[in-house]
Design goal:
The complex is a heterodimer of chains A (281) and B (312). Chain A is mostly helical and 281 residues long. Chain A has two domains: 2-71, no CATH class; 73-274, MetI-like (MetI-like fold, Orthogonal Bundle), CATH 1.10.3720. Chain A has 14 helices and two strands, in the order H-H-H-E-E-H-H-H-H-H-H-H-H-H-H-H. Chain A has helices spanning 2-30, 34-38, 51-58, 72-103, 107-120, 124-138, 144-169, 172-180, 185-196, 198-214, 217-222, 230-239, 245-265, 267-274; strands at 60-63, 66-69. Chain A is globular and about 75 Å long. With 312 residues, chain B is mainly α. A two-stranded antiparallel ribbon of chain B has the order 1-2. In chain B, helix 7 (132-142) runs parallel beside helix 12 (245-251), helix 9 crosses helix 11 and helix 13 (262-271) runs antiparallel to helix 14 (276-310). Chain B is globular, with a radius of gyration of 25 Å. The chains are: A mainly alpha (281), B mainly alpha (312). At the A-B interface, helix 1, helix 4, helix 5, helix 6 and helix 7 of A face helix 2, helix 4, helix 5, helix 6 and helix 7 of B.
């Protein structure tokens, strides 16, 4: 029994190390000076410095070939704007539709639900190439509006399918009882249906925020540096040769912190949402 | 696609009496914005199909013209296309296979609730929340030849000068590793939810009867868990076959064309060689594969959902 216990403990430790060490080390690197990073052998003991973060926030990067201005804070702002507005738009478009799909069995509804779901699984580049041509000709290229619109490809199917499952669980009798009291359909929807499906809406909103935040390819193709989010901004950092590694690490930490913090506080909702409602009864 | 053509209009007496028209139009009104979005996606999709049948290179706009299946025929005759197919398949089989094995193993480790396993299952969510592109860049920093911590670790194991993603021999290994770091937790979370939802009786009965552990695992637990494993595997397969973020931000498809999978190759064709026709044809082939896979997945997923709803 004790052998089994030890083996289990060892296995759990290895699992924990594999999945957490990279995060831990990149955070450490972001507090290191260039000399500490290049030291061989690497050591977790060093004089922590906020230098990398200060350089990023001020936008003045000191490199070995002189000072370089970057606007990483703009990328951070872009990520926030794009993700937040995409989620809001998806909720406005998706929640009523999810309700319709759950309550009324109509042919068009099923077809729509499946079309949107199947595009969730289609290669994004397939629609991005024609969209690039369209956007360039109608002036939506490189705009927040255009990107938020395309981000619906990620967020809308999530909202539709997760929220639909929750609406299906809300008993229709409660709604009817409220309506027999003389309330209008609209009032029933806002006072009964939506509050009852709130956990689902929260899970869908959270998950779509995170997926929108983590998206890379949409803005890589449909925007230039003015509207690009942190994922694409960080990529420019990594491929630029002159930038110090500590600053790259700090940029990566900046880009993952918001989703990690969100996830830690809301993990119960996430587990439900992640399985697209598959497991939920 | 849906088999339930049963129009059970949910006889709403209240709705019908007050608004005969509104009652019937309501579902359509509510879903109108979503419908418009659907149409909005179908238009570029149709254009992509059209592009794939055209000779369309941005560098030579005057040569643009309809050529039927010319792009497809030249693709199928081209060795680089078959390389793309092989790279994508290898990546998919390796990531999905390894992640399923590892994910199931970890789920079994975390099955029994305790403080440690609860903390660890929350911690496992973290890699999943990191953008795959960013995860790739993190690993790129840590596998840097000069100062990367992982380069240092493998040098301790005797592999000096291990080149990770910059050598053709180890490039695939490196990106598969990143994929595993990001997505194994996804499989673990799904399977853990499945495991914790299993009925207890068969396991208790097996314990009472003194049935050996391997029998319990292969004959009782695995069959009951199979729908979850299938759903998780198919879901990951759909993502893996069209991987872009991890590979592109690690090596842009290199070194050479060792990591040129479908989407990275299509991106390269479209944005380096400005050959929109060819890129679209590659993407159409990929779309066909994902379309078949996604239909299998959706059927599977709906069945699982029904079962979960029915309360086993």
């Amino acid at each position: 029994m004790t052998v089994k216990y030890v083996l289990r403990a060892v296995a759990l430790t290895i699992v924990g190390l594999f999945f957490l060490f990279p995060l831990f080390w990149v955070v450490l690197m972001s507090f290191m000076s260039n000399a500490d990073i290049l030291r061989n052998p690497p050591s977790p003991f060093f004089n922590p410095t906020l230098h990398n973060y200060i350089a990023l926030v001020s936008g003045q990067l000191h490199t070995n070939v002189g000072t370089q201005t970057v606007n990483y804070m703009l990328n951070l702002f872009n990520s926030t704007v794009l993700s937040a507005f995409s989620v809001i738009l998806s909720l406005i478009l998706g929640v009523p539709a999810a309700y319709a799909f759950a309550r009324y069995k109509f042919r068009l509804g099923e077809d729509m639900a499946f079309t949107l779901l199947s595009f969730r699984f289609a290669p994004p580049l397939l629609v991005l190439l024609p969209l690039l041509m369209i956007f360039q000709s109608i002036g939506l290229y490189d705009t927040y509006f255009g990107l938020v619109w395309v981000y619906q490809l990620i967020t809308l199917p999530l909202v539709l399918w997760i929220v639909r499952g929750y609406f299906e669980d809300v008993s229709e009798d409660i709604e009817l009882a409220y309506r027999l009291d003389g309330h209008s359909w609209l009032s029933t929807f806002f006072h009964i249906s939506i509050p009852l499906a709130k956990p689902g809406i929260a899970a869908a909103a959270l998950l779509s925020f995170i997926f929108a935040w983590n998206n890379f390819i949409f803005a890589l193709i449909l925007g230039s540096s003015g509207v690009q989010p942190v994922t694409v901004g960080a990529f420019a950092f990594v491929t630029a040769s002159a930038i110090e590694y500590g600053q790259v690490a700090a940029a990566l930490v900046f880009s993952i912190m918001p989703t990690l913090v969100l996830a830690t506080f809301t993990q119960r909702y996430l587990v439900e949402g992640l399985s697209l409602g598959a497991i939920k009864g | 696609m849906s088999t339930s053509g049963v129009a059970s209009m949910n006889a709403h007496p209240v709705v019908r009496r007050r608004h005969p028209f509104l009652g019937r139009a309501l579902p359509y009104l509510l879903s109108m914005p979503a419908l418009l979005t659907c149409v909005g996606i179908l238009v570029p999709f149709g254009m992509a199909v059209w592009y794939s049948l055209e000779r369309y290179n941005l560098a030579f706009p005057s040569t643009r013209g309809f050529i039927w299946f010319g792009n497809y025929i030249s693709l199928f005759k081209d060795a680089t296309f078959w390389n793309t197919v092989i790279v994508s398949m290898t990546y998919t089989v390796l990531t999905v296979g390894l992640e399923l094995l590892l994910g199931l193993g970890i789920a079994l480790l975390l099955w029994r609730r305790s403080l440690v396993t609860n903390v660890l299952s929350v911690a496992l969510m973290l890699p999943l929340m990191v953008a795959p592109a960013i995860a790739s860049m993190m690993w790129k920093l840590m596998t840097n030849a000069n100062f990367g911590i992982f380069s240092y670790f493998v040098s301790l194991l005797g592999f000096h000068d291990f080149k990770w993603a910059s050598a053709p021999q180890s490039a695939m290994f490196t990106v598969v590793m990143v994929d595993m770091w990001v997505y194994t937790p996804f499989i673990t979370i799904l399977l853990l939810a499945g495991l914790r939802g299993l009925p207890r009786q068969p396991f208790e009965a097996a314990e009472l009867d003194g049935v050996p552990g391997s029998f319990v695992f292969f004959r009782i637990m695995l069959p009951m868990l199979l729908p979850y494993i299938l759903t998780a595997g198919l879901f990951r397969m759909l993502d893996s076959i069209q991987q872009f973020d991890i590979i592109y931000s690690m090596t842009q498809g290199g070194p050479g064309d060792t990591l040129m999978d479908f989407q990275v190759q299509a991106y390269t064709q479209a944005f380096i060689f400005t050959n929109i026709g060819r890129a679209s044809a590659i993407l159409m082939v990929l779309w066909l594969i994902t379309y078949v896979l996604s239909n299998v997945f959706v059927k599977n997923w709906l069945r699982l959902r029904e079962r979960a709803r029915g309360g086993v």
